[in-house]
Amino acid sequence: MGLESLFTNLPEVSKPIKKLSLKEKLIWTLVVLVLYFVLCMLPLYGLSPSYVSQFETMAILLAASFGSIITLGIGPLVTGSIMLQLLTGAGIIQVDTKTPEGRKKYQGYQKMFSIFFIVFENAAYVISGALPPTNPGWFNIMLLIIQLVVGGLLLMLLDELTSKWGVGSGISLFIAAGVSREMFTNAISPMIDPRTQLPIGAIPKIITLISHGNGSLAFWPFISLVATAIVFIMAIYFSGIQINIPLSFGKVRGFGIKWPIKWFYTSNIPVILTAALLASLQFWALMMFKAGVPLLGAYEEVSVGAGKFTQQPISGLAHLLQHASMSSMFEMGMSIDTFTSILFYAGFMIVGSVFFAYLWINVGKASPSDVADQILSSGLSIPGFRRDKRILEKILARYIVPLALLGGVTVGVLATIADVLGALSRGTGILLTVMIIYQFYEQIQKHHMEEMNPMMSKVMG
Description:
By secondary structure, the chain is mainly alpha-helical.
């Protein structure tokens, strides 16, 4: 049985028979969102009540709900995508994504890698003891693994359902929903944190502290609100920056359009992949430590109250990636260790975003060559230049590559600022949400334009 036969037997969501209207796409998107929240609320049967999440700070970036059947969220899906991109970039797997057959083959590889990592990472997470069963034994371990694998496969199919029947990407939709929920909770929740005996939400916390005469302690909750607002404003500002290349139709004189090349040229892909890589490194660091091979760092148990303990990295790469916030630095004092951790975290976010931005240009049909083919196939050309792909590709390369790299640097810096200042959610999550909502708005606008004028679908590719 060849790869083509294997790909056709993989679980798949069929495409709609007829072209869906914008209203139908929005309804399907809402259905997927509701199903995602249902999966978040389905607890794992047989999970020990003493379970404490090890990666709560990364849950939001993986659209995960620890302790539910989607405990690892989109982590395995994104890990599979990263591995496939690295293998295709290195030439180990050769797929011509410029042809319909090649794109179909690439999608088959991507689904196969996703399924493999859904099984592999969930099994490793349970077997390592990160998700302890109520009663020890292989039956209970396998029961947890089966539930997690089913949840991962359902999430994969929901992502595919969104891309074929809804608007945008399911992965992006899940991340935006999770981040929005966390920010809403951290901003206005009146629930009391048992560790501090203060409200969880920043606004109720500020009011409580000021009313009790502790105005100085309200400084950092206020800073978290300010940091969130700054990152939102800056992300929206950079999302609107673009270079417009004038194009004209060769057969229609006096009529042309502008081809936009945005500052965030690769959208939210680099920051998603960087965040997923960061989460995977922390995940494997703990797994290797529990297995007695602390190559990525050592951990120690830290009490979180109620007789429960969590694992905290104290050395190695895992410790360096566990960034410190400004509030903790002022509380515990500045040290070389915390300063080094902040610099290392910032470098990792910036370099990772730049690397994946450049990689995505070449594998995501976004290179100057791919864009030139798209422009020429639409019957467009740059006024004053010959209709030649080499000339068009050279002109596009002047803008696409620099903007993609600058966009990667920008998201890395903004994510670091938000995390260090202690924003209402992880900086990466806030950036993702802003870009996802902005992209969602643009896609709705595009679908609306296509419905108003069917000819625009051909022009816009």
